[in-house]
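Weekly structure sync, notes
Attendees: PL (lead), two postdocs, one rotation student
Agenda item 3: pending single-chain targets
PL asked that the sequence for the first pending target be pasted directly into the notes so everyone works from the same version. It is reproduced below exactly as submitted, 162 residues in total.
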Amino acid sequence: MKTFLFIAPSFFTRALAALALGLALMGLHGSAMALTTEHGTICKPYGNSNTAGLYASIYGVANYSGAGLAVICPVVRTVTVPAGSSFSVWVDGSAAASDTTYCSLYSTNYDGSYLGAASFSATGAFSRLLTLPDTQVPYYSSQSVYCYVPNNGNLYDIEPNQ
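Predicted structure, written out during the meeting:
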């Protein structure tokens, strides 16, 4: 009987320790792999913040200004970019098949100096990846996506590939 009482607390202690360790490791994994998809409504008109025609909805932002409109979207980066790798951002949106959307991923250093950019142009619906090398995305840098959206064009989301 004494043996059972001695083994039982030890067994339960080990089981609780294993459970706590497992939960801690799952928590670390989740925070390092944070999903930071930003809804298109995070984007603002480039330059004059009072520009009419950029409409927000559950789908993102739409340009109903009657002409092309430039927007700027912040990029949330939750991890540093390892040496020898790259940093990528998905941009999703749409426009008429005859209209072109232009987007660029820009990186600037903490002092505002230009570090690099990657660009694409697309017609119709698009889901495109913009990529910068690690040398253009140092620790204290910030990134943004600039897009020229044609009339009746949409931006749905900006998603860093971390």
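Discussion points:
- Residues 1-33 form one domain.
- The CA atoms of residues 99 and 153 lie 8 Å apart.
Action: rotation student to compare against the earlier draft before next sync.
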